[in-house]
Write a structure and sequence with these properties.
- Helix 4 packs antiparallel against helix 6.
- The protein has 500 residues and is α+β, with helices and mostly antiparallel strands.
- The longest helix has 27 residues.
- The two termini are 30 Å apart.
- A hairpin with a 2-residue loop joins strand 21 and strand 22.
- It has a 6-stranded mixed sheet.
- It is globular and about 70 Å long.
Length: 500
């Protein structure tokens, strides 16, 4: 498979992880062989088992970006760059965690002294710079940001609470999960990367109908108000536009996402694209007036395939391995409001929905619904569905559709948009705009889960420390419709018509 992106440098640390990953893809989920095998070594006895089970599986850092408010416009670029550097620090620390299992087994303070302690110092230095940049630009930085510098190591049997469907609390990683789920892969040093695991999957028949309970992702459309819809056909990334940038969250930063994105719509989308670049770009949408960019992390089948990015940052060098799966169908539509008319989105409005760090952040911003065709009344957020033969895997997301009426972006890339309330209305003086709904359908061979192990799993690309959890799925959108088309979308929806 080709790509339309830049060649990326691959540091030695990531090459080590990539090498381990390449050896670990013999059809199963990836775990750290030395780490988990040591938990069951007979010669270690009970104490060895208990000690290994308490070792750190991943790194949990407070999300500084979500705590920052009121950043002056002229400091936004610098702050976003500093936050991206902080993400890189976490990635590097996780990679060190994954490649030092033997040292950890011999020293109970190894993780704290050589990984978490230095990481805290580096994060503190960046937080200090962020505060300085905000204050220098005329803002008032939060003096308490320093409290977010420290990170924690999360043991294999410890899950972040608040899983929406019970999966993150019931049967944690050590119970049929990280400790027992997935196949073991290692290199000569026992290194490897993790996820997904058996506990990340659920038979769709075992999901209760209408059980998903989330304040996020409510469909704004209904029987009242503006009942029309507008569908835009932008294909399924036939042009092979992939990169591991994130123009919204990390503008100007190479590999700001640390995972690979699928792009449809705008064909000039990378970290360095300006609004002018987006406006002048080609588009994969049939309606040439829609140059919007729609993107999401790719799904991969961990079948041992060496993809184009097998040795690149954002790909195999950061644990995102296997065959990239294109959607069989990508349905992109805009719908109205149950409470009245919608107004036009401003050009270059940026919206992020879901949270790429939900595994460590918690599920407050988690959004994507996973399901199977023919079982759409059964939706899960923190599990990948096992679909019966002939049924497609579905990824569905409903975006925030309440706009503050002023800003096309915000410091944390969220505050300028909000989800509708239970009655379909917008709170806090926000205005209803067309709600973007994306439904992706995939033809994926159903993974086999037996005896706590998963064979040939599929998984969403993720930050390395997020372990490919389904709850980390997310979508991004930048509105680059021309004014005439946006007005057409609004008029169609407000008239109650279905247009395309």
């Amino acid at each position: 498979m080709g790509r339309n992106t830049r060649k990326r440098r691959t540091p030695l640390a990531t090459k080590i992880v990539a090498g381990a990953a390449a050896l670990a893809v013999g059809g199963g989920g990836l775990v750290w062989a030395n780490f988990y095998a040591s938990a069951h070594e007979e010669h270690g006895g009970h104490n060895r088992t208990r000690s290994a089970g308490a070792q750190v599986a991943t790194i949990d850092c407070p999300d500084v970006g979500q705590k920052i408010r009121e950043v002056p416009d002229r400091a936004r670029g610098e702050v976003d760059g500093e936050l991206a550097t902080m993400d890189s620090q976490i990635t590097n620390a996780y990679q060190r965690l994954a490649t030092t299992r033997r040292a950890q087994a011999g020293d109970s303070q190894f993780v704290q002294n050589t990984i978490l302690g230095p990481l805290k110092d580096r994060r503190k230095a960046i937080i200090d710079r962020i505060q300085l940049e905000i204050n220098r630009a005329g803002g008032k930085a939060d003096d308490n940001l320093d409290e977010l510098a420290g990170c924690q190591g999360r043991p294999a049997d410890q899950q972040n609470g608040g899983g929406q469907d019970g999966g993150q609390n019931d049967g944690g990683q050590d119970d049929g999960g990280q400790d027992q789920g997935g196949n073991e892969g290692n290199d000569d040093n026992g290194n490897g990367v993790a996820g997904p695991v058996a506990e990340d999957f659920v038979d769709i028949n075992d999901v209760q109908p209408n059980s998903r309970n989330s304040r996020n992702g409510l469909a704004a459309d209904g029987d009242g108000g503006s009942t029309g819809s507008f569908t835009t056909d932008c294909g399924v990334n036939e042009n092979n536009l992939f990169n591991s940038d994130n123009l919204i969250a990390a503008p100007g930063v190479d590999n700001g996402a640390h995972h690979t994105h699928d792009y449809v719509g705008n064909q000039d989308n990378d970290a360095f694209s300006s609004d002018e670049d987006l406006a002048n770009a080609d588009t994969s949408c049939q309606n040439q007036g829609d140059k919007s960019t729609y993107y999401w992390p790719v799904l991969r089948l961990q079948d041992g395939t060496q993809e184009f990015d097998a040795n690149d940052q954002g790909g195999g060098a950061e644990g995102n391995i296997g065959k990239i799966l294109k959607p069989a169908e990508a349905q992109i539509r805009f719908v109205g409001s149950r409470q009245g008319d919608v107004v036009a989105m401003p050009k270059f409005l940026r919206v992020i929905t879901g949270d790429a760090k939900s595994f460590t952040n918690g599920d407050a911003n988690a959004n994507t619904s996973w399901s199977c065709s023919g079982f759409e009344d059964r939706q899960v957020t923190d599990k990948y569905p096992l679909c019966p033969e002939g049924s497609q895997v579905l990824r569905t997301v409903n975006f925030q559709s309440c706009w503050d009426g002023q800003n096309i972006d915000s410091a944390n890339h969220r505050d300028h948009m909000a989800f509708v309330q239970e009655d379909g209305s917008c709170a806090n003086g926000f205005q209803a705009v067309p709600q973007l709904q994306i439904r992706l359908a995939y033809d994926i061979p159903t993974p086999t889960v037996e005896n706590g192990q998963v064979q040939n799993p599929y998984a969403v690309d993720s930050f390395p420390e997020q372990l490919h959890k389904p709850i980390t799925d997310h979508n991004d959108f930048i509105n680059v419709m021309d004014e005439d088309l946006m007005n057409e979308v609004v008029d169609c929806i407000n008239r109650g018509e279905d247009c395309q």
